[in-house]
Design a protein that fits this description.
This protein has 18 helices and 28 strands. The strands form 8 sheets. A 6-stranded antiparallel beta sheet has the order 16-15-14-19-18-17. The protein has a 5-stranded antiparallel beta sheet with strand order 6-1-9-8-7, sandwiched between helices. Strands 21-22-20-25-26 form a 5-stranded mixed beta sheet, with helices on both faces. A hairpin with a 2-residue loop joins strand 23 and strand 24. Helix 11 runs antiparallel to helix 13.
Amino acid sequence: MENDHPPADRAPAARRPLPSGIYLPLILTVAFGVIVSLAIFFIFRNGEQVRLQSDFQGLAADRAQAIRTGLGEESIELQLLGSYVAAASELAEGRTESFAQEFARFAKPIPGLEPDGQVLFFVPQVPLADRAAFEKLWSRQMAPGFTIRDQTSGGELVTAASRAVYFPVSVVVPAEFTDAMLGFDLGSVPALQKTIAHALTTARESMGSRMGLPPTPADAQYVWHFFPVNRTTAIPGTPAPRGEIVGLVGSAFRIDQLVELSLRNLSPAGIDLELADPSAPADARLVYYHKSRIPNYETSGVDQKALTWSSTFDAGGRTWTLRASATRDFIRRHSSFLSWILMSAGLVLTLFACIFFAGRIQRAARVEGLVEARTTELEQQMEKQERLAAELADSRSSLTGQVERLNQRTRDIQLLNDLGDTLQSCVTTDEAFPVISAYLPRLLPVSSGALFMHDPANETYTAMAEWGDAPPVEQAFLAQDCWALRLGRPHVVTRTTVAVPCRHAPDAGEGGALCIPMTASGKTIGLFHVTRFPEESHAFALSVADRIGLSLSNLMLRSDLRQLSIHDPLTGLFNRRYMEETLDLETRRAVRKEQSIGVIMLDIDHFKSFNDRFGHAAGDELLRALAALTQAHLRAGDIACRYGGEEFLLILPEASLEAAMRRAEDLRQRVKSMEVKHQGTALGQVTISLGVAVYPDHGRTRELLQSAADVALYAAKAGGRDRVVAATVAGQPV
């Protein structure tokens, strides 16, 4: 028993240290858990920053695109207005009153036109030499007392000083700005001189810095936008000789209202916007500041670490800078604690793993449950991310649709400009109708219709161009059969309206019917009829009808001018200039085909005595009667011209000398037996003398043929008049 207890002097046995290797799993678990937790934290933290940056840039880009689109639409509207002014017939004829009314009618439907939102105007280019005539014309037809005025530094409008050229505001829409701006010379404003010069030298649109509308120069809220108007072409950006530039169409608009209008469909997102014009003076570079209007917005401003985004784009010949800044509220709302949660979960898992390796196996189940709960939370977060990704895809799809619609609108406008350019290149309306039939299926692809032109002879409207697979049944109708022609405005018939169908189109069909009168210079020249048109295409159809109507009126005017330029106004025969051009052409044709040409020159005998006896009015009546008799007995292809005074010249293609002599003798006999009365009084017997020459016997050029026929005519006069004499060859009678 004594051996069971150690002696009192023996020291207790030392406790054996735990093997160092037993701590290795614990150390590795702690190190692995901490590293993994930190890695997960930084990975998810970086992902949040990337998503935050992406969301911010997407929202900022949406607003930048909306502002660019707003400025682009304003430019397109000004280009359309410039194309209209270039195509207006009143501009060439100087009928400024009618032109101003049509300018206002065309400009009023432009979006954004309101008293304090946008001002549209027309600015002609007036040289100093034309100033007095210009002021007199506009004072008589538009505004009594109209003068060209300058603006002093105090905002007062005074009579303009002498300059080489003026740019006075001549037409203003809306009318609220007429008294203040009418006659205001924009060329006198130093801030606008470079802008106007840039528009004239480049033949493109040009925007200026902000300045006020007269007479309040201190109100620097309006951006001035100009577009040059060319007399010979309506193609935007096409250079032309300086003499062909008529002037400028302009727009003064409030940049803040344009930006607000562009952003009206975008919800607040906690983003501040700054729109700047770097090329403007230093005190006017910041043209717009948009502060986010969201609940609980922190008025202390944007954090120094807030996100920023900037972009530049060109509009009106100027480079604009748009800067977007995210507010602290935006950053706070787009941040999450997921990274902290995951890191905490990792550390907790590491702790439980350490406890597990420390011997507390009984808590393994609890650790497993915690892991499962954290996994479920992670799955829920992933599902949330997937939903956000789907919403982002929907937003992108919506934006893509909007961009496609804008692109389609741009293509439609370009196609409409192409139609206008092609119609301007046509010589007659007969050439224009096939062009219209070819373009309309592309401009109004789902519709059908026809273009009816007014026939003044029988007061009917006849179909001259058709398109679509369901053209109108009626090819001609009277004006009283169409409500649009009666009312003088477009007439729409759909299932949702109570409008009465026109008699010329009683069955509107499922797509409805649209009748648009086409007018020019206050006269109705035709009707644009469309069926089965989408409701959203109504406004575009009106633009197409206006463009076609203006082009056709220009063609009709050019045709009338052409007829006036080649016909004698008294007799209705071709004039001398046309005769010379035609005889040159027939001479060249006769050389190629080796054919002859007969030329007959005739003169009324004793015409001066006739005028002295009966008066010049009776003489004019005699000339008209002789012209009518001559025209009635011409064969197809023959040409009768008034050479001058009482002399006439006849061109007989492919006629020999014998045939020409017979024709001349027949005409002499008919004139001799002709009875002419003036105001019920018989003018007595009339005789004529005729000289005949033929190609190539009497000359191989127009001048020689005319001279030979003229010499033969004088020989007939000298021989006693009332006779036909042929030209001679080498001095011998033929």
